């Protein structure tokens, strides 16, 4: 038995020794092939260099030898033919507007306003990306919502460069343009807004129409439950997460106040209570005026909402009809916002912490387009699907209830209510 075992062991050792020698021979053969390939490649490169040197003039040779110590940077050659075509002076304005949602004149205005903040200097290694191209990358990304790899192909830039440009330009828009184009109106503007809203509805002292929409996001890594959107999940039969954008607009659909970034599980009432507008109203800023909201908001001293109880009277029906005209202004403005900037319609690659900056930039660009009468293509119009949640406390002020009843009574008995409620 013992001799048999020794024989088997010796046979196995010989087998593994032969196997090891076999693999060693293979490795040596591969090593020789690689060495031979490198030698051939080096000889070809040397021959090409000699040939190039022989074909050059003595002046060129001297110039190269003097600059041989400079650093060389490899940059991938990408085509930016599409952007060069759009940037031509004779490029059709309607085609430009289709791509960027605004006319050339508005685009150039934005570039001029941002120039001092986003312009970069050329370096010895590469030329800086021009301001127009920087702004165009950002606006085209916001307008189309296309992924960064497609933005990269359109503008002939790297994907990471495009991502960086979008955030840089959005940040510049928010810091430079927002104070100028998105702010609470002064007294003269408020007086005009009151008159215009009263002309629309017959309801006096209205300074704005308020609405809250949801922006879809990818499931966050933290606080997932806070961003879970139950209403959209039930409607679409697909798990949905979102953040909110609350906005107040004037009669033109221009935002005068925004509150961005609260989690999608929060109701309209909860978002309102977290907003700076709510804090300013508590400080007396909105005393004696109304901001009109939907039934998702509570009735307050400064927030006017429709009647929601069953079995409404004719007076209450008439009031709801007229307040609906004001509500429609905000809802249509948000429809144009999402229609112009398609990035708001789908889940985005932007990180959650960067989204408020991007959304703020979209609101500012919306205002610029509205102020400059930039119409929107009918094909881009977007139907909103935001559901109103009944507030926990629908009535927060007895005096506001009496004021609403008085407005409803005046509308009906002064012949301002129309007949749609009959």
Number of helices, where a helix is a run of at least 4 consecutive DSSP H or I residues = 16
Mean pLDDT: 85
Largest sheet: 5 strands, mixed
- What oligomeric state best describes the polypeptide chains here? single chain
Distance between the termini: 110 Å
Radius of gyration: 33 Å
Supply the number of structural domains: 2
Domain DDE Tnp4: 211-367
Pfam families: DDE_Tnp_4
Family: Belongs to the HARBI1 family.
Keywords: Hydrolase, Metal-binding, Nuclease, Nucleus
Would you kindly provide a written description of the structure presented here, covering whatever features stand out?
With 422 residues, the protein is α/β, with parallel strands linked by helices. It folds into two domains: 81-180, no CATH class; 182-413, no CATH class. The chain is 56% helix and 8% strand. It is built from 16 helices and five strands. The chain has helices at residues 2-55, 58-66, 81-86, 93-100, 104-118, 131-144, 148-155, 159-181, 187-201, 224-227, 230-236, 268-274, 276-282, 314-340, 355-371, 398-413, and strands at 206-217, 241-249, 255-263, 290-292, 303-304. It has a five-stranded mixed beta sheet with strand order 3-2-1-4-5, sandwiched between helices. Helix 6 (131-144) crosses helix 8 and helix 8 packs across helix 15 (355-371). Residues 65-69 have low confidence and may be disordered.
